[in-house]
Amino acid sequence: MSLDKETVKNIANLARIKVADEALEPLAGELSGILDWVEQLNAIDTDGVEPLASVVDVTLPRRTDVVDDGGCRDKVLANAPESEDGYFTVPKVVE
Amino acid sequence: MSDLTNLTIAEARDGLDAGDFSAVELTEKHIAAMEAARGLNAFITETPELALERAGQSDERRAAGKTAGSMDGIPVAVKDLFCTEGVLTTAASHILDGFTPPYESTVTQNLRDSGAVMLGKTNLDEFAMGSANITSHYGNVINPWKGDAGKDLVPGGSSGGSAAAVAARMALGAIGTDTGGSIRQPASFCGVVGMKPTYGRCSRWGTVAFASSLDQAGPMTRTVRDAAIMLGSMAGHDAKDSTSAPEGVPDFEAALSGDIRGLKVGIPNEYRIEGLSPEIDALWTQGVEWLKSAGAEIVDVSLPNTEHALPVYYIIAPAEASANLARYDGLRYGLRVPGDSLDEMYANTRSEGFGDEVVRRILIGTYVLSAGFYDAYYMKAQRVRRLISENFKKAFDDVDVLLTPTAPSAAFAIGEKMDDPIAMYMNDVFTVPASLAGLPGISVPSGLSSDGLPLGLQLIGKAFDEETVLRAAGVLETAADFKAMLNGEGS
């Protein structure tokens, strides 16, 4: 799969990463190289093979539905680059 | 170099118990060694005050006859991928600037509970993405071993700082993490022991996530016995990580009986890859002979999907990384680069905060997970992952452990293999398959290359059978008698 500049720009936007225009072409080349290489998997017959999402064979454990965490607002906010009145602050999103 | 920094963990433990020296003395020597070796750039953050405080507490406990656990008073280094309460945690990324966790990861908490003394946080590839420790925002780590003409070599990666710290006698042991080889490959490059336990053996809670279905913490030490001791402290079920296995922690050290008579050791034919360096091939053959002389039975096995492991890995790991790294948004912690809108603030922060390799992997991951491509790439990779896992299961019907090389080369010079991402990815060709199958693997320093650089051999075991892996590793270690760095000198 050969990626063009537009596709790279699109996925960069999906990933919320800004890529300078002059970097798009070389990046498209690198990413295409990696995709070409992984596409060797297409040659393998996987009909009827279930995808393996986790190597752990256990069912997810359940716990009692009780509050066992929380009440640590200041700790949560302690690393925020910007916060105000106990909230994270963001650029204005509503006009 | 002082004698105390040349001890093994087991020797230091016995010396502390016998009162030959105190934890504070032991820690002071290591702090001095850490400072003297700053040129290697193995640490991002040194925590000498904290170390001395904890060493003092350890001495008090021991004096009161109440040692905390098997690591009480032992100075260790911690890969800067583990959240440590009140201590800067960076994942070697600009995007985590100034992040000081208000909590401790389970693995480092377990080590603290067993009395270990943290010396500092070691350097790594950014977000553990790399095999040479050349993608850190905090600069390259330099391998304490020197190549011909004293050239600076990479320590391997991503746990390169941890490997260098242990090899250069700055710490008695270190924690690493391994996603596709990030403990075993740097261990091989730096001439130390590195073990990736079974997926689920150590909790991932509080470890900065790279690829959640693969990430696993493990010990990096100078001997197999030390790895067994340290793993015992790190491991255990943790309700805070739903993938943490509800298994008891065996006495790993007790597994080191030295007796492998009748043990079936598999040699996977497919690891004899095209272009394998003759000296690594020769070392592998030597390893087979060593285990055979110790009474093991050698069995040829086949893992037919081995060659597909790397491409599977380079779909699954970036896919999971792109999801995990979505959390770096400039809002909650770390770097924030302003923008006129929320979206622009995200994009500005993330493009300035992530390095090239991390961007590359996020974009690959985003692409393979995007609408229209998900089945063709991600689901396909997961199906082949099952085939790889089943290959191992079948092989383990006939054998107890597998013996392979750890890495396809010795440490290379800083600057090599940097232009071609795929050439760099090839470093993990022997370690990635076991990662995909979630199996335990260990690298044991087993010989020297013609340039006098360390080479490791890898043993891979059945899930949750670290004991057999360690037992065989102990025998391999004895036979290899790898003393080059244990005498305190590089090549």
How would you characterize the overall build of this protein?
The complex is a heterodimer of chains A (95) and B (491). Chain A has a domain at 5-43: Histone, subunit A (Orthogonal Bundle). In chain A, 35% of the residues lie in helices and 4% in strands. Chain A is built from three helices and two strands. A two-stranded antiparallel sheet of chain A has the order 1-2. In chain A, β1 and β2 form a beta hairpin. The longest helix of chain A has 18 residues, at 21-38. The mean pLDDT of chain A is 92. Chain B has 491 residues and is of the alpha/beta class. In chain B, α4 links the parallel β2 (75-79) and β3 (117-122). At the A-B interface, α1 and α2 of A face α9, α10, α11 and α12 of B.
Low-confidence sequence ranges of chain A: none
Distance between the termini of chain B: 16 Å
Name given to the CATH homologous superfamily of the domain at 3-257 and 406-480 in chain B = Amidase signature (AS) domain
Which percent range fits the helix content of chain A? 25-40%
Question: What would CATH call the architecture of the domain at 5-43 in chain A?
Answer: Orthogonal Bundle
CATH topology of the domain at 5-43 in chain A: Histone, subunit A
